[in-house]
Amino acid sequence: YLFDQEKEQDRDLQVMKSFYSETAAQIQELVEQECDRMEYDGSMMFDEYPDKFMMEHLCRKIEQEVLKEEEGNTSVLIIEETCQGGQGSCGNRREEEGLRDLIGVILFNEMFRRRSRHRRQKRFY
After folding, report:
1. Are 34 and 63 in contact (CB under 8 A)?
2. What CA–CA distance (Å, rounded) separates 119 from 106?
3. How many other β-carbons are positioned within 10 Å of the β-carbon of residue 31?
4. pLDDT in tens, 41-79
């Protein structure tokens, strides 16, 4: 019964993901790739209290990949962490913050989903 319920939830999730915008779908794909790399026993993804700094680092890493793909540029883009020169001098800083916020929401949701699945599977073994 639980297996059928989980399969139904996964199907429903795939339907909801099909409604994502092109940018959100691209981010979701990169997030899933990153989470696939981190999905092993002992990974920080399964820590009781994940490190906030590492979570922010993952968001920045994915953000750089998204921006690199948008630009079609093979060089790594560096995102400034601080803005110098006062209000209005940051160019599209708000847009970058919005992108990073979206990446964070998608990443944290994907990690929550995988952590929950990991806990459920551990109970059966």
Report:
1. no
2. 20
3. 22
4. 888 888 988 899 999 999 999 999 999 888 775 444 444
Tally Cβ neighbours within 10 Å of residue 6. Answer: 14
Q: Which region holds residue 88: left if phi is over 0, alpha if psi is between -120 and 50, else beta?
A: left
The pLDDT value recorded for residue 72 is: 73
Q: Is 85 exposed, middle or buried (0-12, 13-18, 19+ CB in 10 A)?
A: exposed
pTM of the model: 0.75
Pair 102, 24: CB distance under 8 Å? yes
Q: Which long-range contacts (CB under 8 A, 24 or more apart) does 63-68 make?
A: 63/96, 63/99, 63/100, 63/103, 65/30, 66/23, 66/26, 66/27, 66/30, 66/99, 66/103, 67/99
Distance CA 106, CA 112 (A): 10
Q: What distance in Å separates the CA atoms of residue 93 and residue 119, rounded to the nearest whole number?
A: 38
Pick the closest to residue 103 from 30, 17, 13 (CA basis).
30
